[in-house]
């Protein structure tokens, strides 16, 4: 599928530039709307997309956590650490099991996305795409409830960011809100 190829190409491009850009990596979430009727969502890592249908939140992505994909990590020679007071980490370092880049851990990580599909009809109100800094401090339904109250999608995204900061999010926070009506 084209989405899978795009994700793998992106990972290869990032890895090829690692001497210049450094050894880090990134998570990603992508939403593709076709003819205002078909929505395809793909992701690697813990960035997330949440759809609101009649006010009910529906998670469109899979959070790629090391414990969930432990078998694949261990089969590739890696390990998952579970230190008290911390999240599970690949080789004691990375808190996701799929990511772009991260050259030093690449032999244990995947960069192929999970892909979901949804029909867009009159019941679908909005889509929230955000990094884990939002989702670590806010449930999917809470985010939908906040975003629904604000007509302008840019202002809705800013409201979600402000709420995440108010809740003392310690991680990166990026957010996009897409309105369908």
UniProtKB/TrEMBL annotation:
<dbReference type="InterPro" id="IPR015655">
    <property type="entry name" value="PP2C"/>
</dbReference>
<dbReference type="Pfam" id="PF00481">
    <property type="entry name" value="PP2C"/>
</dbReference>
<keyword id="KW-0904">Protein phosphatase</keyword>
<feature type="domain" description="PPM-type phosphatase">
    <location>
        <begin position="1"/>
        <end position="180"/>
    </location>
</feature>
<keyword id="KW-0479">Metal-binding</keyword>
<dbReference type="InterPro" id="IPR001932">
    <property type="entry name" value="PPM-type_phosphatase-like_dom"/>
</dbReference>
<dbReference type="GO" id="GO:0046872">
    <property type="term" value="F:metal ion binding"/>
</dbReference>
<keyword id="KW-0378">Hydrolase</keyword>
<dbReference type="GO" id="GO:0004722">
    <property type="term" value="F:protein serine/threonine phosphatase activity"/>
</dbReference>
<feature type="compositionally biased region" description="Basic and acidic residues">
    <location>
        <begin position="62"/>
        <end position="73"/>
    </location>
</feature>
<keyword id="KW-0464">Manganese</keyword>
<comment type="similarity">
    <text>Belongs to the PP2C family.</text>
</comment>
<protein>
    <recommendedName>
        <fullName>protein-serine/threonine phosphatase</fullName>
        <ecNumber>3.1.3.16</ecNumber>
    </recommendedName>
</protein>
<dbReference type="InterPro" id="IPR036457">
    <property type="entry name" value="PPM-type-like_dom_sf"/>
</dbReference>
<keyword id="KW-0460">Magnesium</keyword>
<feature type="region of interest" description="Disordered">
    <location>
        <begin position="57"/>
        <end position="76"/>
    </location>
</feature>
